[in-house]
Amino acid sequence: MNYLFRCAVLLVPTVLANFARADGQEIRRCDFELKRGCLSGYASVTLVKGALQRIESVVIWCGRGGHRKSQDYSCMIDSSRDDKDSSWSDDAGATVIANGSPWNPDQPDRMKVTIGRDVSIDFDEAQSLGRCGAGAELPRAIVIPAQSGACRVWLKTP
């Protein structure tokens, strides 16, 4: 009887995990901390049956002096396919998310997310103004690895 109880306790998390993914939802997330550039944060995507449904990212830059403190600056992105603030489209196997109200309407403000073994988030055409505090900007790209681990982050070159 004790053996059956232990087996049941071990199986419950597996059953619950499969039940939670019954709708085909998968969340991929990674964290990062870079001493060069003094920034940290995370990136997360929600996939439903392999299709991108939501992207979330927070990038925190150190304040003056390069030390973590209350004067850190951050960039935040939280967009989902059903929100009214962005438009989503597909382009050659990638999802392009355009900001509906960019800080500078004369320039593009969009992210490109490619889902494969890894998830690649390209911020090269995303405007930092409107999303970031003074002294902070979005990186050029963040890659969420297929296997759990730290994000790979590419910074924009000055």
Overview of the molecule:
By secondary structure, this protein is mostly beta strands. It is 12% helix and 43% strand. The chain is built from one helix and ten strands; from the N terminus they run αββββββββββ. A hairpin with a 3-residue loop joins strand 7 and strand 8. The N and C termini lie far apart (67 Å).
Keywords:
158 residues; mainly beta; 4-stranded antiparallel sheet; 1 helix; 10 strands; 12% helix; globular
Please state the overall shape, judged from the principal axes of the Cα atoms. globular
How would you characterize the largest beta sheet?
6 strands, antiparallel
Unreliable stretches (pLDDT < 50, length at least 5) are 1-20
| Rg on CA atoms, Å | 19 Å
Average predicted local confidence, pLDDT:
83
Topology, number of strands: 10
Percentage of helical residues?
10-25%
Broad structural category: mainly beta
Give the assembly state of these chains. single chain
β-strand amount: 35-45%
Number of helices: 1
Measure the end-to-end span. Answer: 67 Å
Across the major sheet, the strand order is 5-6-7-8-9-10
Which H/E pattern describes the elements? Answer: HEEEEEEEEEE
Number of structural units classed as domains? 1
